[in-house]
DNA sequence: CCACACAATGAATCCATCA
DNA sequence: ATGATGGATTCATTGTGTG
C-alpha cells in the first residue's frame, strides 16, 4: 500500500512544467517528500510610500505590483508560515531550501524557518556588483540581498558539492558572500512594450551556483514563486528536473518561452569534481592480504615512531595496538589521525606513504 | 513637571562610565529619551554541540560562555523582546539603533525590531577579509556578519553623514556591504595569561564607520553589551559620549583600562587612510556562472590541445581534469601554467584568449 | 638585519558508515 | 537507535624562531 502510494505519487509528480495557481494550494496538492530542493523568491513586502524619483525627476520603476502589497506584518507572517509549511511537507528527508529576500522580509522568513524546525546551514549574501545607487543620499546603497540555506530538519542530510564549489572559486573554499552582477543586458527579459517583464528577475549566475552547489544531476527542484523562470532555465541547462508554480499568466508565458529555448549542457560538462569520500574504501588489511606489505614489516611516522605490521592488518607500536588510525592518534596524543597519510614504509631505501599502495589498489579496482 | 523630569534625567545620565549589571535592569533605570545611538552586540545563541578540530588536529576555541546559552528559541525571543523594548524607551525621537548578529540570531532580532515599530533603514553586511574557514568542508565559509540599522519609529529622523561616509569610501557612495578584517593582532585584547580577553571582540574599524556615519560629535552612544568596550574606545576617540553596560566584572575591568588609554583624535587626524585596492581575483568559474563561457564549450591551447569546460569551472581534456592551470600544466608536461593566457576560445571563427573575459569582468566590478 | 619557515588562531550551529 | 571506527578536512594574518 505504502509503496503503491509512493509509486503513484512519483508517477504524478509533474516534472518540467509550470503550474498555475496559488503556490500554497498547488504545493498542498503535490505528493509529500518528493522534492530535493526548493528555491524560493517570495514577495518582499515592500512598503513604499508614494513614488521614488531620481534626481532628474524621472520616476523609478518601483516594485509596487498588486501582489506585493501586504497590509501588515501579521498578514505577511501568516503567508510566510503557510507557504513554508507547505514547502516542508514536499521536501524529501535529505532535501533543502533556499529563500532569497531583503531586509524588508528576510528576518521574518528566517525566524519562521527556524520556528518550523528547518535547520539553517548558512546565510549567504549576494553582493551586487552594480546595484542601483541610493539617489537621495539618505541611506547606504542597498547593494546586497540575503539568501538563507536550510536543511529540512536539524541533523538531516543535505547535498553540498563542496569540491565543485571550491573549483568554481579557483581552488579556495566558497565563502558566504557571493559577488555577482544583477540581471540586465541580454539576459533581462522584456515584455512586448520593451519594459522589463518581471521587476525582480534574478541572474542565472546566482542559480547556477545554488544548483551546482546543492543539487545533483536528476534532482527535482521546485520554485514556488517561479516568475519568469530563472530557476527552471538553469535547472534544465544543468540536467536537473524542475517544477514551477506561478500565479500570473503573463509570467508563465514568458517563462515557458524562455525555457523552451534553453539547451541542456552535455553530460561531461555537467559532471563536476567529486569528493575523495566517494572513492571506494580500501581496508588496510588488503595491503597485507595482497602482499603489498608483509606482516612484520616496520612502518615509520613523520616524527620517527615505529610500528610493526601484523597479519590481521593492525599495527603494534610499544604498548599500543590497533588500526593504522588508532595507533597514529595515540602516538601523537591527537583526537584523530588519518593513518593512510601518516604512515610510511621503505622501498629502495626511501620513505613512501602507504597511501600510494591504496591508490594502486583503487586503480586496479577501476580497471 | 515634564521639563523638570527631563532636566533631572539629563543631569543624572552617567556619561563615559561602564555600568555594572543586567542590561535590561540598568536600561530601565536610565532616563527615557536620553540617548542618540545604541550599538548592540547581543549574544548570538550559537548552540554549539561537540568539539571542532582543525585538519591539523588543533582544537577550535569555541564560544561556550554561559552568557551565550539559552534553553530555546522561546527563551531567546523573550530576552530579545525585553532588551529591545528597554532600548527603545531610551532613544531620543531622532535616535537610532545598530544590532549585529549572525544567522543564529539575527532573523529573530530583525523580526522583533520590526514588530516593536523600529524602522529598518538598512541591513549592512560586514564581509570579513580573513574569516575562519569551514574546516570540515560541509558548508560555506561563514565569512560575514549582519548588522541592522533602524530608526526609532517609521518616519522618524535619524543622523546619516552621507558625505563623510562617501569620503571614507574614496568618493563613492557607501554601500551596504563593508569589507573589514576581523579583530586580531595588537588590537586584540589579552588577559593576564595571554589568552583573548573576550571571545568576540569587534574591530574598531567597524565602530568607526558606524559612529562616523550615524552620530555627530557630542552625541550619546549606549552599548548595552559592552564587553571589552570597543564602542566606548571609538566613541571617545571620535568625541562622542558613551554609556556602557556590562554584566561581567572581568570585561568591565579590561574595558576601563583600554578606554583610559584612548586619546581623542584632533579634528584633522580623523582623515582616514584608505586601503589600496589590489586587482580583484576572478575565479575562472565566474566566466561559466555568468554565461561568458558555456559548459560543454571547447577551449584550445597554442599547440592545438582541446579541453571541454565543465559546470564547476574545471576543464576536462582526454583523461586530465582540473583547473585551467592544472590541465594546461599537465598537457605541457610543465610544473605550472598560467591558464588565463594559455587557453583560447572561439568567437566569430577567431581564437580569443580567455583573459579577455577576465578583463571584462574586472571592468564591470570596478564600475 | 633580513628572509624565510613554521606555528598559532579566529562568533562554528562542521562526518559517514557500519555493526 | 546508538556507539565505535575509519579517515577526510583550512584561509588569512600575526607572531616566533632560525639561518
TrEMBL record, chains A, B:
Q: Which residues form the signal peptide?
A: none
Species for this entry:
Gymnodinialimonas ceratoperidinii
Q: What is this protein called?
A: DNA methyltransferase CcrM
Q: Which InterPro entries match?
A: DNA_methylase_N4/N6 (IPR002941), DNA_methylase_N6_adenine_CS (IPR002052), RAMA (IPR040843)
Gene Ontology biological process terms from the UniProt entry: methylation
Q: Which family does it belong to?
A: Belongs to the N(4)/N(6)-methyltransferase family.
Recorded GO molecular functions are: DNA binding; N-methyltransferase activity; site-specific DNA-methyltransferase (adenine-specific) activity
- According to its UniProt record, the EC number is 2.1.1.72
The answer to keyword Methyltransferase applying to this record is: yes
Q: Which residues form the DNA methylase N-4/N-6 domain?
A: 35-256
Q: Which terms are listed as keywords in the entry?
A: DNA-binding, Methyltransferase, S-adenosyl-L-methionine, Transferase
What lineage, starting at the top, does this entry show? Bacteria, Pseudomonadati, Pseudomonadota, Alphaproteobacteria, Rhodobacterales
Coiled-coil regions listed: none
One family from Pfam that matches here is RAMA
Under which main EC class is this enzyme filed?
transferase
Reaction equation(s) it catalyzes: a 2'-deoxyadenosine in DNA + S-adenosyl-L-methionine = an N(6)-methyl-2'-deoxyadenosine in DNA + S-adenosyl-L-homocysteine + H(+)
Q: Where is the RAMA domain?
A: 271-366
Amino acid at each position: 500500500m505504502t509503496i503503491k502510494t509512493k509509486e503513484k505519487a512519483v508517477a504524478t509528480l509533474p516534472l518540467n512544467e509550470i503550474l498555475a495557481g496559488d503556490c500554497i494550494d498547488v504545493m498542498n496538492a503535490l505528493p509529500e517528500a518528493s522534492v530535493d530542493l526548493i528555491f524560493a523568491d517570495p514577495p518582499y513586502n515592500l512598503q513604499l510610500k508614494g513614488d521614488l524619483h531620481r534626481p532628474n525627476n524621472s520616476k523609478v520603476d518601483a516594485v509596487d505590483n498588486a501582489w506585493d502589497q501586504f497590509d501588515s506584518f501579521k498578514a505577511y507572517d501568516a503567508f510566510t508560515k503557510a507557504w513554508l509549511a507547505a514547502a516542508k511537507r514536499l521536501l524529501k528527508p535529505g532535501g533543502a531550501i533556499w529563500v532569497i529576500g531583503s531586509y524588508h522580509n528576510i528576518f521574518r522568513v528566517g525566524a519562521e524557518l527556524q520556528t518550523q524546525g528547518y535547520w539553517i546551514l548558512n546565510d549567504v549574501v549576494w553582493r551586487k556588483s552594480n546595484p542601483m545607487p541610493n539617489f537621495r543620499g539618505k541611506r547606504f546603497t542597498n547593494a546586497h540581498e540575503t539568501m538563507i540555506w536550510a536543511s529540512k530538519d536539524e541533523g538531516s542530510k543535505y547535498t553540498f558539492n563542496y569540491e565543485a564549489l571550491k573549483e568554481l572559486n579557483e581552488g579556495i573554499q566558497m565563502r558566504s558572500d557571493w559577488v555577482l552582477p544583477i540581471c540586465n543586458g541580454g539576459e533581462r527579459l522584456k515584455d512586448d512594450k520593451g519594459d522589463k517583464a518581471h521587476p525582480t528577475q534574478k541572474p542565472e549566475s546566482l542559480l547556477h551556483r545554488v544548483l551546482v552547489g546543492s543539487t545533483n544531476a536528476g534532482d527535482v527542484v521546485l520554485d514556488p514563486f517561479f516568475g519568469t523562470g530563472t530557476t527552471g532555465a538553469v535547472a534544465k541547462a544543468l540536467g536537473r528536473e524542475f517544477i514551477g508554480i506561478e500565479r500570473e499568466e503573463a509570467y508563465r508565458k514568458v517563462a515557458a518561452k524562455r525555457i523552451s529555448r534553453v539547451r541542456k549542457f552535455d553530460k561531461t560538462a555537467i559532471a563536476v569534481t567529486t569528493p575523495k569520500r566517494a572513492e571506494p574504501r580500501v581496508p588496510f588489511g588488503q595491503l597485507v592480504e595482497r602482499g603489498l606489505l608483509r606482516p612484520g614489516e616496520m612502518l615509520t611516522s613523520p616524527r620517527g615512531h615505529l610500528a610493526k605490521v601484523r597479519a590481521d592488518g593492525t599495527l603494534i607500536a610499544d604498548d599500543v595496538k590497533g588500526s593504522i588510525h588508532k595507533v597514529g592518534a595515540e602516538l601523537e596524543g591527537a583526537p584523530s589521525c588519518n593513518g593512510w597519510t601518516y604512515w610510511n614504509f621503505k622501498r629502495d631505501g626511501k620513505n613512501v606513504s602507504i597511501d600510494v599502495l591504496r591508490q594502486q589498489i583503487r586503480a586496479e579496482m577501476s580497471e
